TrEMBL record:
HAMAP family in the record: 23SrRNA_methyltr_RlmD
Protein name according to UniProt: 23S rRNA (uracil(1939)-C(5))-methyltransferase RlmD
Disordered, as annotated region: 1-35
Amino acids binding [4Fe-4S] cluster: C104, C110, C113, C190
UniProt lineage: Bacteria, Pseudomonadati, Pseudomonadota, Gammaproteobacteria, Oceanospirillales
Biased composition (Basic residues): 1-11
Similarity section: Belongs to the class I-like SAM-binding methyltransferase superfamily. RNA M5U methyltransferase family. RlmD subfamily.
Provenance organism: Halomonas alimentaria
Annotated InterPro entries: 23S_rRNA_MeTrfase_RlmD, MeTrfase_TrmA_AS, NA-bd_OB-fold, SAM-dependent_MTases_sf, TRAM_dom, U5_MeTrfase_fam
S-adenosyl-L-methionine keyword on record: yes
Catalytic activity: uridine(1939) in 23S rRNA + S-adenosyl-L-methionine = 5-methyluridine(1939) in 23S rRNA + S-adenosyl-L-homocysteine + H(+)
EC code: 2.1.1.190
Family annotation (PROSITE patterns): SAM_MT_RNA_M5U, TRAM, TRMA_1
Length: 483
């Protein structure tokens, strides 16, 4: 990657990845279809969101769910817009060699895993291509492919939220939402859930159906941790008989069961003995344990999360004594591992409750490993908040792991007050592109990039980028020499 992070003049981009795509002129192909030379529609390539892209006879773009590059398909348009239409496949006339049989029986109805018809290696190449294209839109050309962080393609998801609804006929529906609707698809098996969670799907159907007031169940949250399986029942209205029924369910199935009741200000109550929930992440000298509560953010894919933490340790290298600012720190997913490598970490999180748990995690792990972590609470979206932290901490490294809204305020502050290195962990490509533009045009360059396949069989793109700012590095080195 000799040219990694080098800015080049902007050029027109297609907005789609070139995954094994056919480069035939779309309008010419569409006109040929009009004259009856071949039925169906030819798919050109995949869009960023994993849908096939084609054009109609008039040249209007058509995004086709379930279609792959090079395929000829019959489609049905389900949404018409001014500049493009949206459609789904009715019949595949000429399949792509990349097409596979979806492993899940609910694939055609469930709105979750939208790429199961594409072979897993090709899913991952598509995500790498999307990230390259997003960077190219900001004038950053990448030689080679981003690093790939990936794990199992099935049985990987350790948390899930199941919707519950009783329809007008009194029929119970328990599962995930159907595509493009709020309607629930009944789920009794799920290939991506860890086995301990999948094993509860059928018993949960029976349990909810047996309740006195099943309409009062809002949703069910499942979570797998080092302590086993946890189930949180969102109860809209108090019901003593159902409370006892859920307690018995937890005991019977060996599940840690909590009852979250009330509409406006729900209260969490454990119906079985309250567990000290935790998971493990790698540190510089061994495993670290992170405690958390059911409502805290926890990466859904434990295996890939461990790879992300290991990658952060590898990319940042020697950190002994380095001042590090971890923004959107959560319960310490990156803070504690980086502190175990010798960094002096200031970890900032918006939720006061999560800050308290982060502090407890530092104390619990400090018994085995010396950790320098100062936990702080701050609203990182508030104007001036990040700038104040940068002025106070004067970090050599900043870690950003924001929610889907991204880190626009942090990116602006980092341009105004550059630091030598920034590690950005992104879960949303649109906000990543926006924030990368701020950083790159503010003097940073990308030196390492990786795609983390956190959600296999979906178009969801998780990524890691390491930025360096040469002027900030020189200024820090000069200041050290003067000192």
């Amino acid at each position: 990657m000799a040219m990694l992070g080098k800015r080049r003049p902007r050029r027109e981009r297609s907005g789609v990845s070139g995954l094994q795509g056919r480069q035939a002129d779309a309008r010419t192909a569409a006109k040929a279809l009009e004259h009856g030379e071949a039925p169906g529609l030819r798919i050109e390539r995949l869009a960023h969101d994993g849908r096939g892209l084609a054009h109609d006879a008039a040249g209007k773009a058509l995004f086709v769910e379930g279609a792959l590059p090079g395929e000829r398909v019959e489609v049905a348009v389900h949404r018409t817009r001014k500049r493009f239409d949206e459609a789904h496949v009715r019949e595949v006339l000429e399949p792509s060699p990349q097409r596979v049989d979806p492993p899940c029986a609910y694939y055609a109805r469930c709105g979750g895993c939208d790429l199961q018809h594409l072979a897993v290696p090709d899913q991952r190449r598509h995500k790498q291509a999307v990230l390259i294209d997003l960077l190219a839109r900001q004038g950053i050309e990448i030689d080679g492919e981003p690093e790939l962080l990936a794990g199992a393609s099935q049985g990987y998801r350790r948390r899930a939220r199941l919707g519950v609804k009783i329809d007008a006929e009194g029929q119970l529906h328990l599962g995930f939402r159907a595509r493009h609707t709020h309607r629930l698809v009944d789920i009794e098996h799920c290939t991506i859930l860890v086995p301990a969670l999948e094993a509860l799907l059928v018993p949960l159907h029976r349990q909810v159906a047996s309740l006195q007031a099943p309409r009062q169940v809002g949703h069910l949250a499942l979570l797998a941790s080092d302590q086993g399986t946890t189930l949180v029942v969102r109860q809209l209205k108090e019901n003593t008989a159902d409370r006892e029924a859920w307690r018995a369910f937890g005991v019977e199935h060996g599940v840690h069961l909590a009852w979250l009741s009330g509409r406006d200000a729900p209260v969490l109550e454990w119906l079985t003995p309250a567990p000290a929930l935790s998971c493990r992440v790698p540190g510089a000298a061994g495993e670290l344990t992170l405690g958390f509560s059911p409502g805290d953010f926890l990466q859904a894919n434990a295996e890939v999360n461990r790879q992300m933490v290991t990658t952060a340790l590898e990319w940042l290298g020697a950190l002994e004594g380095a001042a590090l600012l971890d923004l959107f720190a959560g319960v310490g997913n990156f803070s504690l591992p980086l502190a175990s490598a010798g960094a002096r970490v200031t970890a900032v999180e918006g939720s006061p409750a999560m800050v308290e748990r982060l502090e407890r995690n530092v104390l619990a792990n400090a018994r085995e490993t010396a950790l320098s972590v100062a936990a702080r609470q701050a609203d990182l979206a508030q104007e001036g908040a990040v700038a104040a932290l940068l002025a106070e901490v004067r970090p050599e490294v900043v870690v950003l792991d924001p929610p889907r809204d991204g880190a626009a305020e942090a990116a602006r502050a980092l341009v105004a007050a550059p630091v030598p290195r920034v590690l950005y962990v992104s879960c949303d490509p649109a906000t990543l592109a926006r924030d990368v533009a701020h950083l790159v045009h503010g003097g940073y360059r990308v030196t390492r990039i990786a795609v983390a396949d956190m959600f296999v069989h979906t178009s969801h793109l998780e990524s890691m980028l390491l930025f360096e700012h040469s002027r900030a590095q020189q200024q820090r080195q000069g200041a050290s020499a003067d000192g």
